[in-house]
Specification:
The chain is of the alpha+beta class and about 625 residues long. The chain is about 35% helix and about 15% strand. Strand 1, helix 3 and strand 2 form a beta-alpha-beta unit. The structure holds flavin-adenine dinucleotide (FAD).
């Protein structure tokens, strides 16, 4: 396997412009002769499918939900970044680019990040044109707020429902193409495999989740927009259906998996409250614009927050990071919260949280203004915890949230399997070892609206294709394998639930490959995961049959993939003997507990190649060169 990043030459500001000119075009009259499959209808998939449909390609779009509108993107709350500089506070394309490279702890590909910052401004225009109701200032200009890791206000938002409003915009565009006949939509259909013919991706194998029928779809190119795998940790802020299945099975067909251990544990979530909980809830990072984070100075202090005087509170982020304060980036804020709780300063019934307190901003701005900014988030918090955050501080703790790892892609967003493109959270993305808040929506929409539509055309224009249909032997073989896996799950007839195995894996990964990792823990996880996997196939019980809507069966397939994938995550974390961003190896830290990178040995993207069951995966390295920004120690002090 060879990793060719295909980054164009020239100064960073001109690369994308030049590249767009160099890309081959498909004649408008020829576009309808090309079939493109898009798997996923979240922000990345819906924007890609709608744009390709509008361009004239024949698109088929798949999702496992009953409607594209239910993709997990709908959960995004806080906002989307763009370098518009409406606030006149010093923002620019270069600053967004710089903040993102630094925020990712210098483990992302410079050229991609610059392009992302460049097109961020177009995304906002596109969404406004679709009617996305972004918050506005009194004078009519779009409003902004700040997110972690930035000292400017560049985050556009629609109250606490930005993802929902953006997805409605993308969905409208998609629905228009469905009505126009350029996009055929396949909801409740799960992709189980990629069909590779003559070394190129030529289709997918899917299972109809209502009837259980397994079938193939062929095309000239396949786009995966299947989101992230944070649910590998069992408890996460992701929707329950989020999974690794599509990307994992593509990996098994030859697509390299990049930086699988780069996961983001978000600092601002409601702490878990019991062993059998299945989901964690994010409280948007936007709350940290005004809310102040603190813990009691005395370990084990169980007094109610209102009884703890000012002098006995530790506003630890403001103390440790005076320039960024409560808006220190996610990886750093999470780690510090963990430290506080581990040292006995945790609050709440399980002493597993820290306070996010609005007492001071309410006194300064008034309750009405705080309600205007965060009303729906406050209401959500109260419904879940039964506590009113206008009167008592919220309790928060870090939770698995987002993954920077994903399938490796080149500058054109193509994986190592020709014809297989990957967009949105599913690719290894532009966020390096830590994503800044409000940058995932930007990346997903940037990939779908503005990058893929150009680059996929170049691929199609350069290829010669033999005619294939769904009776091709490769389709039949892949269908058989998918069917066999489903039958094996149904046939295990054990006595333990799928959830029990998922929980077991999640607890192990949160402990050994979560916010902090070390060699001994990772080695232990690598010993234990195969054992859990072996027991899973022996002892799992999947109720119901394969010929009906069966969510237990869907879950079982996804957990089976997590049980394979978890091992790759730990393998990746073990080989990276440095700390960077969300990957905190306890052995590699500065005396004051900050991540210690090793640029000499680890300034690379780790891309893993599947080498067959029972064989160790092969590690390939894409070296990262920094020309426009200089490698520096990341500091938010
Ligand atoms: C609670 C929460 C809040 C967030 N808030 C923000 C925010 O404010 N700002 C920000 O920038 N980011 C935010 N994020 C991150 C952001 O929402 C996601 O990274 C982004 O929406 C992912 O979009 P996507 O299109 O790549 O994937 P998704 O929206 O997850 O869509 C995946 C699609 O793939 C389909 N799919 C998956 N697997 C298969 C399969 N095997 N077969 C068929 N279809 C499949 C699904 O049906 C779905 O349509 C938040 C995340 C969470 C969890």
């Amino acid at each position: 396997m060879e990793l060719r990043a295909n980054v164009p030459d020239g100064p960073i500001e001109q690369k994308w412009e030049k590249h767009r000119f160099d890309l081959k075009l498909v004649n408008p009259a020829n576009k309808r002769k090309y079939d493109v499959i898009v798997v996923g209808s979240g922000l990345a998939g819906a924007s890609a499918a709608a744009t390709l449909g509008e361009l004239g390609y024949n698109v088929r779009c798949f999702c496992f939900q009953d409607s594209p509108r239910r993709a997990h993107s709908i959960a995004a709350q806080g906002g989307i970044n763009a370098a518009k500089n409406y606030q006149n506070d010093g923002d620019s394309v270069f600053r967004l680019f710089y903040d993102t490279v630094k925020g990712g702890d210098f483990r992302s590909r410079e050229a991609n990040v610059y392009r992302l910052a460049e097109i961020s401004v177009n995304i906002i225009d596109q969404c406004v044109a679709q009617g996305v109701p972004f918050a506005r200032e009194y004078g009519g200009l779009l409003a902004n707020r700040s997110f972690g890791g930035a000292q400017v206000s560049r985050t556009f938002y629609a109250r606490g429902q930005t993802g929902q409003q953006l997805l409605l915009g993308a969905y409208q565009a998609l629905a228009r193409q469905i009505a126009a006949g350029t996009v055929a939509m396949y909801p409740r259909t799960e992709m189980l495999d990629v069909v590779v013919i003559d070394g190129r991706a030529r289709g997918i194998v899917v299972r109809d989740l209502v009837t259980g029928k397994v079938s193939s779809h062929v095309a000239h190119a396949v786009v995966l927009a299947t989101g992230g795998y944070a649910n590998v940790y069992h408890l996460s802020t992701n929707a329950k259906g989020c999974n690794v299945t599509a990307t994992w099975r593509a990996y098994r067909r030859g697509a390299a998996f990049a930086n699988p251990c780069f996961t983001q544990i978000h600092p601002t979530c409601i702490p878990h409250s019991g062993e059998y909980q299945s989901k964690l809830t994010l409280m948007s990072e936007s709350l940290r614009n005004d809310g102040r984070i603190w813990v009691p100075k005395r370990a084990g202090d169980t007094r109610a927050p209102g009884e703890i005087p000012e002098g006995e509170r530790d506003y630890y982020l403001e103390r440790l990071y005076p320039s960024f304060g409560n808006l220190a980036p996610r990886d750093i804020s999470s780690r510090r919260a963990k430290e506080m709780v581990d040292a006995g300063h945790g609050v709440g019934p399980l002493q597993n949280g820290v306070y996010l307190d609005f007492r001071d901003p309410i006194a300064r701005l008034g309750r009405g203004e705080i309600a205007e900014r965060y009303g729906n988030l406050f209401e959500m918090y109260e419904r879940i915890t039964g506590e009113n955050p206008y009167d008592v501080p919220m309790r928060i703790y870090p939770a698995p949230h987002y993954v920077m790892g994903g399938l490796w892609v080149d500058y054109n967003l193509m994986s190592t399997v020709p014809g297989l493109f990957v967009v949105g959270e599913a690719n290894f993305s532009d966020h390096g070892a830590n994503r800044l808040g409000a940058s995932a929506l930007m990346q997903g929409l940037g990939d779908g609206y503005f990058v893929l539509p150009y680059t996929i055309g170049d691929y199609l224009a350069r290829q010669r294709f033999d005619a294939v249909d769904d009776r091709h032997a490769a389709c039949r073989d892949t269908e058989r394998e998918a069917d066999a896996k489903v039958n094996r799950l149904l046939g295990a007839k054990g006595s333990r639930t799928v959830d029990a195995f998922h929980r077991e894996l999640g607890v192990l990964l949160r402990e050994k490959c979560g916010m902090a990792r070390n060699a001994a823990g990772l080695e232990e996880a690598l010993r234990v995961i195969p054992e859990i996997r072996e027991r899973f196939w022996r002892e799992v019980r999947v109720t119901g049959s394969g010929a009906e809507l069966n969510q237990e069966l869907e879950k079982a397939g996804r957990v089976a993939d997590f049980l394979e994938f978890g091992e790759l995550m730990c393998e990746d974390a073990l080989q990276r003997e440095e700390s960077c961003g969300g990957h905190f190896r306890e052995e590699y830290q500065t005396p004051d507990g900050e991540a210690r990178r090793d640029d000499e040995r680890f300034a690379y993207v780790a891309a893993w190649e599947y080498a067959g069951d029972g064989n160790a995966p092969r590690l390939h390295k894409e070296p990262l060169a920094f020309e426009a920004v200089h490698l520096a120690t990341r500091s938010y002090k």
